[in-house]
Design a protein that fits this description.
Distance between the termini: 17 Å
Shape: globular
Strand content: 25-35%
Radius of gyration: 24 Å
Number of helices: 10
Structural class: alpha/beta
Helix content: 10-25%
Largest sheet: 6 strands, antiparallel
């Protein structure tokens, strides 16, 4: 089912009888490569065997109607074309042509243009100078980065302008809290040559200052005013500077961007006493990254537990012990009241709200945030009290030519019956970029079907969650103490609003796929059923 391209000669990998209907199996291919054969409704398809995001083996993923979902982080791919359909990630699977002999031997043919590659970029058009239209994308984060690529993949040949207030091309922001000493080129989605090749203009170090929705104009910080035909806005968040005395001292970093990561990398060494202020997953990821590189790490938590907004209280308590077992000191229910300097104007100590003083050569703050939408005042768009903007199921706003996505979008969430919510999530932002771009090219052609998927890895333990909503009860199957479990978060109506796991492979991906098919689970479905609910997923 791959499109018409020039292909290599077939290489036999196995027999079609080896693949069950509505099933899949991995086979050896060439040059140590693997190929994944998938049979659905009697038809055999062949795609790359590993997710292009982080390399997860897709044979352990979730097969549903016409697509496969990555077991690790929930990215989805069309089994007929290999095209990426949901995120995280950027690239698509290699797609192979299948030839079956009379005896059932399966021959696999590779697109000649894909030989030597393990993943591919979806086909994209370039600019047609006869097309006078202009699409503007405001925001260089995950939503904006995906949007500009998708516009070209969908055949839009007009002018595309990407506006980013950072000095860098779109990059993988998830890794900001997971690594140090990394060059920006290693984090960027694509290099400048890619954007040049596909005629995507990039305005870096530039902010939007004013939008006139009626006139379809946008004014930029560099003095340029642009006329647009359609615009996608995904300007994300900015940290709120906390009122702490001495917060402007050297080696105090409010973590948000690559520049903040670079400042941390420069400030630390093996003698550093680092203090991380915050209780979120970002704080936890930073702490676990630093503990192997510095003298000491202390988390000054602002809540009872660490990461409990993401993990829940019960799992959060176990994760707290995971951190203390790994030499990270945790001080809950606290805060920093003052940053104390040395003679060079660098942080030397921090005073907590209980007046205790800690040695500190590097203070990293995971601050609260506000939405970057002030420039839209007077634009004709209605801003909610939190600064977010309402969208419809196509991510279009009240102004027909403007779409929004990412952190600033108060958008329908499919998995909670299309209730509106603002969810700050990397995977959702990337999906917003894709859905908005498709609808910008062809109005009302792609409905938003958001199913939140969250993931992190803490001291070698993989935590995954899918779903959204408040819960009142928690059911844990497995071994919480040894961090190998499945958790069901249940609300007061006995509905499962979220499923989490630690080191249990594809369970959460299965729940995500079930939600994407419109199903929901109740307490009765998950209590003492040995996960029989996973059989509800439609596979053909």
């Amino acid at each position: 089912m791959c499109d018409d391209y020039e292909y290599t000669d077939p290489i036999v990998v196995g027999n079609e009888r080896d693949v069950p209907d509505n099933g899949m199996k991995q086979f050896d291919f060439i040059d140590s490569k693997k190929v994944l054969l998938i049979k659905q409704k009697g038809q055999l398809y062949a795609v790359g065997s590993n997710c292009p995001h982080y390399g997860a083996p897709l044979q352990n993923g979730v097969l549903s109607e016409g697509r496969i979902r990555c077991p690790w982080h929930g990215a989805c791919f069309d089994i007929k074309t290999g095209d990426i359909e949901n995120f995280p990630g950027l690239d698509s699977l290699l797609c192979y042509k299948v030839e079956i002999s009379k005896s059932g031997q399966v021959g696999i043919m590779t697109r000649r243009k894909d030989v030597g590659f393990i993943k591919r970029i979806r086909d994209m058009v370039k600019r047609d100078m006869n097309d006078p239209s202009t699409y503007v994308v405001v925001g260089g984060g995950p939503a904006g980065g995906i949007c500009v690529e998708t516009l070209r993949q969908q055949g839009y040949a007009g002018r595309i302008i990407l506006i980013s207030k950072e000095a860098y091309l779109p990059y993988d922001r998830v890794k900001i809290s997971k690594t140090t000493n990394v060059k920006i080129e290693a984090l960027q989605y694509r290099q400048q040559e890619f954007y040049d090749e596909y005629d995507i203009e990039t305005f870096l170090n530039v902010e939007a200052t004013k939008v006139a929705g009626g006139e379809q104009t946008i004014t930029l910080s560099n003095g340029i005013s642009l006329q647009y035909d359609k615009m996608f806005i995904a300007t994300g968040c900015a940290p709120i500077i906390p009122p702490i005395t001495g917060i402007d001292l050297k080696n105090v970093v409010i973590i948000r961007t690559y520049d903040d990561l670079a400042a941390i990398s420069k400030a630390k060494d093996e003698t550093t006493n680092a203090v991380c202020l915050g209780s979120s997953i970002i704080t936890l990821e930073i702490a676990q990254t630093l503990i192997k590189q510095v003298e000491s790490v202390t988390i000054v938590g602002t809540t009872d537990l660490i990461g409990n907004e993401f993990l829940g209280d019960v799992i959060g308590e176990r994760v707290l012990r995971l951190f203390t077992d790994n030499r990270v000191t945790v001080i809950p229910n606290s805060g920093v009241s003052e940053v104390l300097p040395n003679m060079n104007g660098e942080v030397e100590k921090v005073m907590l709200i209980n007046y205790n003083v800690l040695p500190c050569n590097l203070l990293i703050i995971d601050a609260d945030v506000s939405l970057n939408t002030n420039f839209l005042e007077g634009s004709g768009l209605k801003l909610n009290t939190d600064g977010s903007i309402d969208t419809n199921i196509y991510l279009r706003t009240s102004i027909e030519s403007i779409y929004v996505g990412g952190d600033i979008a108060n958008a329908p969430v499919y998995s909670i019956d299309n209730e509106f919510a603002v969810i700050r999530n990397y995977q959702i932002a990337q999906n917003h970029g894709r859905v908005a771009a498709i609808n910008m090219v062809k109005s009302r052609s792609k409905i938003l079907r958001t199913v939140p998927f969250f993931f992190t890895k803490l001291f070698g333990k993989s935590f995954r969650f899918s779903g959204y909503g408040e819960y009142t009860n928690l059911i844990i199957e497995g071994d919480l103490e040894n961090l190998q479990f499945v958790a069901y978060f249940i609300n007061n109506a006995d509905k499962v609003v979220r499923v989490g796991s630690c080191d249990c492979n594809a369970v959460v991906a299965k729940f995500a796929e079930l939600q994407s098919q419109g199903f929901s689970l109740t307490r009765k479905d998950v209590e003492n059923t040995e996960m029989a609910w996973t059989k509800l997923i439609k596979t053909g």
